[in-house]
Automatic annotation (TrEMBL), chain A:
<dbReference type="GO" id="GO:0052717">
    <property type="term" value="F:tRNA-specific adenosine-34 deaminase activity"/>
</dbReference>
<dbReference type="InterPro" id="IPR002125">
    <property type="entry name" value="CMP_dCMP_dom"/>
</dbReference>
<dbReference type="GO" id="GO:0005737">
    <property type="term" value="C:cytoplasm"/>
</dbReference>
<keyword id="KW-0819">tRNA processing</keyword>
<dbReference type="Pfam" id="PF00383">
    <property type="entry name" value="dCMP_cyt_deam_1"/>
</dbReference>
<dbReference type="InterPro" id="IPR016193">
    <property type="entry name" value="Cytidine_deaminase-like"/>
</dbReference>
<protein>
    <submittedName>
        <fullName>Inactive tRNA-specific adenosine deaminase-like protein</fullName>
    </submittedName>
</protein>
<feature type="domain" description="CMP/dCMP-type deaminase">
    <location>
        <begin position="272"/>
        <end position="395"/>
    </location>
</feature>
<dbReference type="GO" id="GO:0005634">
    <property type="term" value="C:nucleus"/>
</dbReference>
TrEMBL record, chain B:
<keyword id="KW-0862">Zinc</keyword>
<dbReference type="InterPro" id="IPR016193">
    <property type="entry name" value="Cytidine_deaminase-like"/>
</dbReference>
<dbReference type="GO" id="GO:0002100">
    <property type="term" value="P:tRNA wobble adenosine to inosine editing"/>
</dbReference>
<dbReference type="GO" id="GO:0008270">
    <property type="term" value="F:zinc ion binding"/>
</dbReference>
<dbReference type="Pfam" id="PF00383">
    <property type="entry name" value="dCMP_cyt_deam_1"/>
</dbReference>
<dbReference type="InterPro" id="IPR016192">
    <property type="entry name" value="APOBEC/CMP_deaminase_Zn-bd"/>
</dbReference>
<dbReference type="InterPro" id="IPR002125">
    <property type="entry name" value="CMP_dCMP_dom"/>
</dbReference>
<feature type="domain" description="CMP/dCMP-type deaminase">
    <location>
        <begin position="10"/>
        <end position="129"/>
    </location>
</feature>
<dbReference type="GO" id="GO:0052717">
    <property type="term" value="F:tRNA-specific adenosine-34 deaminase activity"/>
</dbReference>
């Protein structure tokens, strides 16, 4: 398989792929001599144009036993079912002129709305596929927007680099305001805190089995399988041990990550040195909420419905609750700049994360995906599927749960192989660090 | 729901009353009125109420509040992951409304023993209403999916009281909802 060199984006719909059983209509077709194809097709298009089957290709080209075989659709067969004599005169003339042997064939009745459906249709008879007629919103993204989207995903990938726990790759999340082109919050998994001594447990049991499962299901999965590069599978296979640090891939694995330094300096500004629920998306939401409270203090609190609209936030005002103190802004400078450049007011204040996008390296689990529903995220972009516990198509499909009061759009971004390697490289770099620290012990 | 008799049933009602108290506290603070308590060995060890408005973080459900209090406490006294998991496996949660999909996942991740809730949560419920994430056997999962830890789950405990609180909340209106907001359907009562 060709190496993936480009960034690509795929919509992950709320419905499982439309049943791959293709709705068909019957046609008469015939094999033809390749050198006569031009003539025959020109005449056919005049006599019986396929007006309602514009997505169907008139000619099918197949290679059988090294020989090229061309077939052409003569006409719809439906109305002539009982009486082949009733075929249009032009067809009769063609049949006798070129010694054609009509046979019945089935072609897709409707234009495909997904690549997968199109591939299925083509097994019957080739059709054309225009992603621009997709309902998924990708078509409306401009080149510039796509580039921004890919850049944000890249920054999420970079964030996985900077955050390891016990030599393991973690998931990372970046929340973005696409209208202002602004990073609102970012975070990585905080289920276990970086501690060089925790790696011992990772080699034990569980993970290997789980990763075996992971690989198997990746190759089986219809959902993402079609877009899944071999390189991704290989990557997964090689790096499964490091993957066990990705919270959403292994939500129940926290009990095996026993930290030996509970009260060491490893404890950061955070009041939790580890926390089974602090997946990247959850922490990012928390950071976004903290930013909101910081930028628009008082405006959202219970007693403040009549606050004047144009308030300059004053951090010393409105004494932060103890929960706010734990917040460390990763974009503190950006925040300050923002405050200086534009005075936040009620009009600018978003309701939760309405209108914002989130970039995640791995597909989120149900904990995170539902949190993102609650927080009203507009779009989710993720790079790698999560066959263990993914909630956006792999195992569950929250974007398609009709009862929920909010629905985001979901996109999967296929990342170039070299970026995959970046994650891989980091993991192995870190493994070697790990090894060094082991020697020191 | 079959009514149990005797001490056991009475103590369940008592715990749910305490959860309702938490929910009332939320309502007074103009929060969505959901409350919960976590019980270990017949004793309430933590409680929580919804704080989504105050924090502007829509994930700060009552369950999350109660869970975080415990995790903070237990880490303070130096418990490690295995010890914490062991305690959770002996804890029950009483919550006035069926846990949402997020909270159900959280409770499964922590490995809680049993959940009792008041009214069902038709829109978001993860314990049977929308998904059944509490039941590690029921879902037809695709091959390769991990099966989470399940827990026993019983609804309908003092559900009228829980629904009444929702009703008062939506009558007073959610001051933080975007305008104009659609009329909100009140969660159906569990049987």
């Amino acid at each position: 398989m060709a190496r993936r060199m480009k960034w690509e984006i795929v919509h992950v719909p709320g419905e499982p792929e439309r049943s791959l059983e293709v709705d068909t209509v019957d046609v008469f077709a015939s094999n033809i001599e390749p050198k006569l194809a031009n003539n025959i097709v020109r005449q056919l298009n005049q006599v019986v144009p396929l007006e309602n089957l514009r997505h169907v290709k008139r000619v099918r080209r197949r290679t059988a036993e090294g020989k090229v075989e061309l077939s052409v659709i003569l006409c719809l067969s439906g109305e002539y079912e009982k009486d082949a004599e009733a075929l249009p005169r032009g067809i009769h003339q063609l049949i006798s002129a070129y010694n054609l042997c009509p046979y019945r064939a089935k072609v897709a009745k409707h234009a495909a709305i997904s690549k997968e459906e199109w591939e299925e249709q083509c097994k019957l008879w080739p059709t054309s596929y225009h992603p621009s007629t997709n309902l998924d919103g990708i078509a409306t993204l401009s080149e510039g927007e796509l580039q921004l989207i890919f850049n944000y995903m890249d920054s999420a990938i970079q964030l996985t680099k900077m955050s390891y726990a016990g030599g393991k790759v973690q998931n990372a999340a970046v929340i973005v305001d696409p209208l202002r082109g602004q990073v609102i919050a970012s975070a990585h998994d905080q289920t276990s805190y970086p501690c060089p001594l925790t790696f011992k447990t990772s080699a034990r049991g569980g993970c290997v089995d789980e990763c075996g499962v992971t690989i198997a299901s990746q190759s089986d999965s219809n959902e993402f399988g079609n877009n899944q590069d071999n390189s991704v599978k290989k990557f997964a296979l090689q790096k499964c041990n490091e993957y066990s640090g990705v919270s959403c891939l292994n939500p129940w694995g926290w009990t095996t990550q026993r930290a030996s330094h509970q009260n060491s300096s490893g404890k950061s500004d955070n009041k939790f040195s580890w926390h089974p629920l602090r997946h990247a998306a959850i922490v990012a939401i928390e950071n976004a909420a903290a930013r909101d409270r910081e930028l628009f203090p008082g405006l959202g609190s219970s007693e403040s419905q009549s606050e004047p609209i144009d308030i300059l936030p004053n951090p010393s005002d409105n004494c932060p609750s103890k929960r706010q103190k734990i917040q460390v802004f990763e974009e503190l400078n950006m925040e300050k700049e923002f405050l200086h450049n534009s005075e936040p007011n009620e009009l600018m204040r978003p309701y939760l994360c309405t209108g914002f996008d989130i970039y995640l390296v791995w597909e989120p689990c149900t904990l995170c995906a539902m949190a993102l529903v609650h927080q009203r995220i507009r779009r989710i972009f993720f790079a790698l599927p999560n066959p263990n516990a993914g909630a956006l198509g792999s195992v569950y499909r929250l974007q398609g749960e009709k009862s929920l009061n909010h629905h985001y759009s979901v996109f999967r971004i296929s990342i170039p192989e070299q970026n995959l390697h970046e994650i891989e490289l980091n993991a192995s770099n870190n493994s070697s660090n790990k090894a060094e620290s082991k020697e020191e012990i | 729901m079959a009514f149990e008799t005797g001490h056991d049933s009475a103590s369940k009602m008592r715990f749910m009353e305490l959860a309702l108290e938490q929910a009332r506290f939320a309502l007074e603070n103009l929060e969505v009125p959901v409350g919960c308590v976590i019980v270990e060995d017949g004793k309430v060890i933590s409680s929580g109420s919804n704080r989504t408005s105050e924090t502007r973080n829509a994930t700060r459900h009552a369950e999350m509040e109660a869970i975080d209090t415990l995790l903070e406490e237990w880490q303070m006294i130096g418990l490690d992951q295995l010890e914490v998991a062991e305690i959770f496996s002996r804890c029950d949660l009483y919550v006035t409304c069926e846990p949402c999909i997020m909270c159900t996942t959280a409770l499964s991740i922590l490995g809680i023993r049993e959940v009792f809730y008041g009214c069902a949560n038709d829109k978001f419920g993860g314990c049977g209403s929308v998904l059944s994430l509490h039941d590690s056997n029921s879902e037809k999962l695709p091959r390769g999916a991990l099966r989470g830890k399940g827990f026993k789950c019983t609804g309908g405990l003092l559900s009228e009281e829980a629904v009444a609180l929702f009703r008062s909340f939506y009558e007073q209106g959610n001051p933080n909802a975007p305008k104009p907001h659609r009329p909100v359907r009140i969660a159906q009562e569990a049987e």
